[in-house]
Design a protein that fits this description.
Length: about 450
């Protein structure tokens, strides 16, 4: 199991007036000093994004249990949060490691001591390859990356040979699809890449990878069929590569964003049923780690993933009938009414630089006189548009007073966290004690 990250420096980080939303009294304090002073969310300036600690723990439990019950490994995508303290919670909940998207993110993760990494991307830059070769001198480092062409493999070989890598780099052949993102476009092309990787002296063929989320964006029958067909081709490729795999080390078959983990699990489950980890050579036997990379589950959301996830608490598609088996939104924005220029319209002090907008605009959830006040519903209101620093709140017959605050449900965690250096974590939905400050490293 992955060990403990080196998180001590997070507590010694000194807060400053440059940190959005931080209370004025916190300026000059370390994070640890501030948290020891008993802060509450009501002290923070607007706009702010707050996380719910109780719901985060719930979501970690739901996803961890669901994967374990299906014999799946989980290497959640760390680029969602770029928050080492949250990565540690994911590791503590049973994750095999953390997935990352760039070598810059890998370097950040290694600076905190992360020892189990999947790079869902290729490495072709000579500088990055030299860095990787240096890190591979650590015998505790588990690292695997992707490649989708012979040209990619050749670039890796040149860089690794120049750097003098102490051991081969594990590489998964990335299978794509026409019109999708990266990845070899056919099983036959992927097989050629695998054969080349298996013959390398500085690379090791370590399995099959890919991303199904770019192939569909809803839960229609057509979309689900496209995702299923793609994942089935992954399994087909993995079986075809048996003759090329060496006799040592783990093998990966990996897919699974946060939109279709149920489809991926179903296909992988069928493959494992053919080989219930008994050593059947068709699926690589017990060496094969059937691995999901879903990352957004840790906070879920009130928009895109709420609509498409099979685990949403309000969805008929949810993983089980009990609320305990469903994800809950664990992040919310808060913005203040700073203008009421006409009937039915109010302007809030948070905009595109504070809240996500790429997968749907924020959803008004409630209004209060201030952050420590009682929340009243805003069922008919909506965000009509957003500027850099303002959101247009359409009131639809309701009203809000100048200076009041509006709670906002947010869509897409991946473009929420990158807007904030610190995000306060409250104890629960009903308890605004700030129990942590999540620090991000984008």
């Amino acid at each position: 199991m992955p060990g403990q990250l080196r998180l001590g420096e997070l507590g010694t980080t000194r807060l400053s007036a440059r940190d959005k939303g931080i209370p004025d009294r916190a300026v000059g304090m370390t994070v640890a000093e501030f948290l020891a002073s008993g802060p509450r969310l009501s002290e923070f300036w607007t706009p702010i994004v707050a996380l719910d600690g109780e719901r985060i723990r719930h979501n970690l439990t739901v996803m961890g249990r669901w994967c374990a019950e299906r014999g799946l490994e989980l290497m959640p995508h760390g680029k969602t949060t770029m928050a080492p303290s949250l990565w540690q919670q994911q590791l503590d909940a049973g994750s095999l490691g953390i997935t990352l998207a760039t070598m810059g993110q890998v370097r950040t993760a290694r600076s905190f001591g992360l020892a189990s990494i999947m790079l869902a991307n290729s490495v072709v830059d000579e500088r990055s390859l030299a860095y990787l070769a240096g890190e591979l001198a650590d015998p505790e480092l588990r690292f695997v990356c992707w490649a989708d062409s012979i040209e990619t493999l050749e670039a890796m070989e040149r860089g690794l040979r120049r750097a003098g890598t102490p051991r081969p780099v594990d590489v998964c052949v990335e299978l794509g699809a026409p019109g999708g993102r990266t990845g070899a476009r056919t099983v036959a092309e992927a097989h050629d890449v695998a054969r080349r990787a298996a013959a390398s002296d500085v690379l090791r063929l370590a399995g099959v990878s890919g991303y199904e989320g770019s192939l569909a964006h809803d839960r229609s029958e057509e979309s689900l069929a496209a995702v299923r067909s793609y994942v089935e081709r992954q399994v087909e490729l993995h079986r075809d590569l048996e003759e090329l795999y060496d006799g040592e080390g783990d093998l990966y078959v990996t897919a699974g964003g946060s939109a279709y983990p149920d489809v991926v699990a179903d296909v992988y489950g069928s493959a494992m049923a053919d080989d219930p980890r008994t050593g059947d050579s068709r699926t690589g036997g017990p060496r094969t780690l059937w691995t999901l990379r879903s990352g957004a589950y840790i906070t879920h959301d009130d928009g895109f993933y709420r609509q498409i996830s099979p685990f949403d608490e309000g969805s008929a598609r949810a993983a089980g009938p009990a609320t305990a088996s469903r994800l809950r939104s664990a992040m919310r924005g808060v913005a203040r009414v700073v203008s009421h220029p006409e009937r039915g319209l109010a302007l809030l002090d948070g905009g595109k630089r504070d809240f996500p907008f790429d997968e749907g605009l924020p959803v008004p959830r409630g209004v209060a006189a201030d952050l420590d006040g009682a929340w009243a519903p805003l069922a008919e209101a909506s965000i009509l548009a957003m500027n850099d620093q303002h959101s247009y709140l359409g009131l639809a017959g309701q009203d809000v007073s100048m200076g009041s605050v509006v709670a906002l449900g947010l869509s897409h965690p991946c473009t929420t966290f990158d807007k904030w250096r610190f995000l306060p974590v409250v104890a629960s939905q009903d308890d605004d004690r700030v129990v942590d400050l999540v620090q991000t490293f984008f």
